[in-house]
Write a structure and sequence with these properties.
The protein is mostly helical and 418 residues long. It is built from 15 helices and seven strands. The strands form three sheets. It has a three-stranded parallel β-sheet. A two-stranded antiparallel sheet has the order 1-2. β4, α4 (124-141) and β5 (148-152) form a beta-alpha-beta unit. α8 crosses α9 and α12 (322-335) crosses α14.
């Protein structure tokens, strides 16, 4: 008999015979169960190709086609931005610009997470406009719809459905420990919504639906990714493995447990009014951020009035000068220069001389993005066509995962999506 395993939903099946597995497989134990040994065997024998006429494959119950050896899929990345407020330099420098490079290395899914945008009171008209605006910004920044799936979260109904399934297995104590809920709940007071507490579960559903290998995260999102990993392992433990196999299912893990993808050092952009606080869409003071759609005059005005300090000259790594570090980082990211080149540019300069340099660099960097954004937004039918294509691609992967979860949890899996 041959043993086969599926790398991920919709991906290739690699065949290994007992002869090839024998050097790496030992008797199953609690510390090294059979599934873990099999994964280890694949890692060791990943370049080995074996063929067979018949096999007992670990596929979905409805699959009857024979296994065919194919090349292993690229690792998968998922990320998204809420359509609330205006996207700013921090969103672009800290996240979206990095996504452009990721689409060349990975299978990428970039969504506009509109379901997350309604955990606080919202304006329906603004939500609809902002949803298309975020998608247009993705494309203007360089994300190619031919290389990445760009879609709206609510267009793929599996997100909401998996969210409910995961809520029903997530202990409430895990959600009570989420720091962002506590902080935002204090701001909302008595009007705090239930969705604000449970949205980290929806975030977990977003990630796990696509069997994502990697998730780009900043410091403020690490706790949410840890929750996602905990939920994935809990579901795998409760419903996957041999228990699932004995019930006639595929067996093995239901979800891939994702790993964090930390952005490059120095890519975090802070507030123009407080160098120790992150640039934020929700900050009441618009002067605290550079919006991606700000005019050159607005950028110059904000840079001219931004907070600095009373120290002489400019320097980067002084612990008591967060504003200096932030503005120099913005200049470096906008010009593409090395740290040494930046230090050479600012040598002997004070704030009065540096601020016009920073404003010019920001304006020059954002101008091509703004031009592309204006052209894309002028053709809403094109934006909608991109989102429709992206949703179709995303739904194919998401629905396959959702059916695996349903099968493992004991639901009658529908033959088609209604």
């Amino acid at each position: 008999m041959l043993i086969a395993a599926k790398a991920a939903v919709g991906t290739s099946i690699t065949m290994l015979s007992p002869k090839h597995l024998r050097p790496v497989l030992q008797p199953c134990t609690a510390s090294m169960p059979c599934a873990a040994q099999l994964a280890q065997a694949f890692r060791i024998r990943k370049h080995m190709r074996c063929t067979a006429a018949t096999a007992d494959t670990l596929t979905e119950p409805s699959t009857s086609a024979p296994a065919v050896a194919q090349t292993e899929r690229r690792k998968r990345v998922l990320s998204g931005v809420q359509p609330t407020g205006q996207l700013h330099l921090g969103n672009y420098m800290g996240a979206i610009r990095n996504w452009v490079n990721l689409q060349e290395q990975y299978d990428t899914f970039y969504c506009v997470v509109d379901l997350h945008a309604i955990t606080a009171p919202h304006d329906p008209v603004e939500l609809r406009t902002a949803t298309r605006s975020v998608a247009a910004t993705y494309m203007a920044a360089g994300i190619d719809p031919e290389k990445a799936s760009i879609f709206v979260q609510s267009h793929v109904t599996a997100h909401a459905e998996l969210n409910w399934l995961l809520e029903c297995v997530t202990p409430i104590g895990w959600l009570n420990r989420m720091i962002q809920f506590k902080e935002k709940a204090r701001k909302q007071g008595e009007d705090v919504r239930a969705g604000l507490m449970t949205y980290p579960v929806l975030m977990a559903a977003d990630i796990l639906l696509y069997q994502a290998d990697l998730v780009p995260v900043g410091e403020d999102q690490k706790q949410h990714l840890e929750l996602t990993r905990d939920i994935a392992e809990r579901v795998n433990g409760l419903y996957g493995g041999r228990k699932w196999k004995k019930r006639g299912g595929r067996g093995g893990n239901i979800f891939k447990v994702p790993e964090p993808l930390i952005p490059p050092a120095g890519a975090r952009v802070m507030s123009l009014q407080d160098g120790s606080s992150k640039m934020s869409k929700s900050a009441e003071n618009d002067a605290s951020r550079i919006n991606l759609t700000d005019t050159p005059d607005a950028i110059r005005s904000k840079v001219k009035r931004c907070k600095t300090d009373s120290f002489p000259n400019l320097e980067w790594d002084h612990p008591e000068r967060p504003e200096a570090a932030n503005l120099l980082t913005m200049y470096q990211l906008s010009t593409g220069k090395t740290k040494e080149e930046v230090l050479s540019d600012i040598q002997g300069k004070n704030w009065g001389a540096f601020k016009p340099m920073l404003a010019d660099a920001l304006i020059a960097h954002l101008e091509p993005i703004q031009s592309k954004y204006t052209a894309i937004m002028a053709d809403p039918s094109h934006v909608d066509a991109v989102l429709d294509k992206g949703a179709a691609a995303a739904a194919e992967t998401a629905n396959a995962t959702l059916n695996l979860v349903k099968d493992a949890m004991g639901f009658v899996v529908p033959k088609r999506v209604y």
